[in-house]
Design goal:
- The protein is globular.
- Strands 3, 4, 5, 6, 7 and 15 form a six-stranded mixed β-sheet that branches.
- Helix 2 packs antiparallel against helix 3, helix 2 crosses helix 5 and helix 5 packs parallel to helix 11.
- It is an alpha+beta fold.
Length: 446
């Protein structure tokens, strides 16, 4: 999915960070002024008390910790631009400018989201409706749900805009999340324009480290499983005089500069665009389609459906049976993703005159772009108890092991990974790195 996002989040003042009076060393974030929070408190308290009664919980014995759901500015853009519901725009402005909506204000927000129907729009306009409906479903699923309750928490949920978190000091963000939240869930996919949240405490369902939300992760996946579209990563300052032979027959290209979201570019201006990007950033180039239309893709949810089973790579693959593709099962088994949420995107690619389904991307977190995918992931979380203590620990362990494997791969192609790895920038390639079906991952000097 190609996203249009803001070019840079405004640096709002830090008045949204409010210290609790009874916990002077703890950081809490207020999405609304205190007087507005009190106005919405009654509705929230009624819902919470009904939940506590069902669960036989004593509110006095609970912490104020809750779930943090992280979204990017595409959501606020859709809520403001789409003709979804007249009252949504004010909430979208709050989400964008303040960067957070607290659980105390969630009932009013949900009332407006309830006014959004499924819609009969097409193309881009339908995306607005789908994201709004999936966001509504996600909030309702995560709030005061006895099927996924995290012991000790108050059962609520706060929404964060990731670009706003990016503007804060990393240590401030760490304290806010550790002191006030039991778990973090990011939307999937999330913009490449900011660093993803790095957190093991509280546990995070999303990209574990910023490097996983970058072109590096695509190359790592293709190298690990020997499967992917023709791909070339060029270092900053490179210049292409012509397209490499592996891209000879392609008419559309998926182009991804570092710290930017992907763009689909046609042959007639791809070379000039890539060279302009290379002046300021490394660039990942991928052969995307032989024709003028974007290729067919299929998204397979994580965790895998219980009825999925590995089949030979000789099937006629489609949206119904892609869950049985051998590459899908290799990914889940190799990375131990049985307790993870997200999706694997497969694309129908071409190489040397052959057409086949190959791996395009692996995204971690809660999908909001597809209502059916969102419904499936929510149901899997509840029925498989993915938020139980045991499964969260298994997820955390597999995420750490994946990060170690991934960073070892990145280290092979960077100047000094120890210096490069910091919260403010991504490690940069020092050589060109490519992938194709025959050679696998290969390199060439600058």
């Amino acid at each position: 999915m190609i996203k249009n996002v803001e070019n840079g989040a405004p640096m709002w003042d830090d008045s949204w960070i409010v210290l609790k009076e009874d916990e002077p060393e703890s950081d809490s974030v207020a999405g609304l002024p205190w007087e507005e929070q009190s106005k919405t408190g009654n509705a929230k308290s009624k819902l919470a008390l009904e939940f506590y009664e069902r669960m036989n919980l004593n509110p006095e014995e609970l912490t104020s910790k809750r779930i943090a759901f992280v979204f990017d500015s595409t959501i606020t853009a859709f809520l403001m631009m789409g003709n979804l519901a007249s009252g949504l725009k004010s909430h979208a402005v709050t989400l964008f400018e303040v960067g957070k909506l607290t659980d105390e204000a969630m009932d009013d927000f949900l009332q407006e989201l309830d006014k959004v129907s499924s819609g009969t729009e097409e193309g881009e306009a339908q995306r607005y409706f789908d994201h709004a409906i999936a966001l509504r479903k996600t909030i309702r699923f995560l709030r005061y749900n006895e099927n996924i309750y995290l012991p000790g928490s108050d059962g609520g949920i706060d929404l964060f805009r990731c670009e706003r978190l990016e503007s804060l000091e990393s240590e401030t963000v760490r304290r806010i999340l550790m002191n006030n939240y039991t778990m973090i869930i990011s939307m999937a996919p999330i913009t490449h324009e900011v660093n993803s949240i790095t957190s093991s405490i509280p546990i995070h369902h999303g990209a574990s480290i910023p490097e996983m939300n970058s072109p590096w992760f695509s190359l790592f996946l293709y190298s690990t499983f020997g499967c992917g579209p023709p791909t070339l990563l060029l270092p900053l300052g490179s210049r292409l005089l012509h397209l490499p032979e592996i891209f000879r027959d392609f008419h559309l290209f998926l182009v991804t500069p570092f710290r930017h979201d992907s763009q689909v570019l046609p042959t007639n201006n791809v070379l000039a665009s890539i060279n302009d990007m290379l002046l300021v950033s490394p660039v990942l180039i991928q052969g995307y389609s032989l024709g003028d239309e974007e290729p067919e893709t299929v998204d397979v949810p994580l965790p895998l459906p219980l009825d999925s089973h590995k089949q030979d790579d000789g099937e006629e693959w489609n949206g119904e049976n892609m869950k049985n593709h051998p590459i899908i099962h290799q990914i889940v088994e190799s990375f131990q993703l049985q307790q993870s949420i997200g999706f694997v995107r497969m694309v129908k690619s071409h190489f040397n005159g052959e057409s086949e389904w190959v791996l395009l991307s692996l995204e971690f977190g809660m999908p909001l772009f597809d209502i059916a995918l969102n419904d499936y992931v929510c149901d899997a979380i509840a029925t498989r108890k993915l938020f139980s203590e045991e499964n969260l620990q298994l997820h955390s362990k597999s995420a750490r092991l994946l990060c170690l494997r991934f960073l070892h791969f990145v280290e092979e192609f960077t100047i000094d990974l120890a210096v490069e790895l910091n919260p403010d920038k991504l490690p940069l390639p020092n050589i060109s790195v490519g992938f194709d079906k025959i050679r696998g991952v290969y390199t060439r000097p600058r």
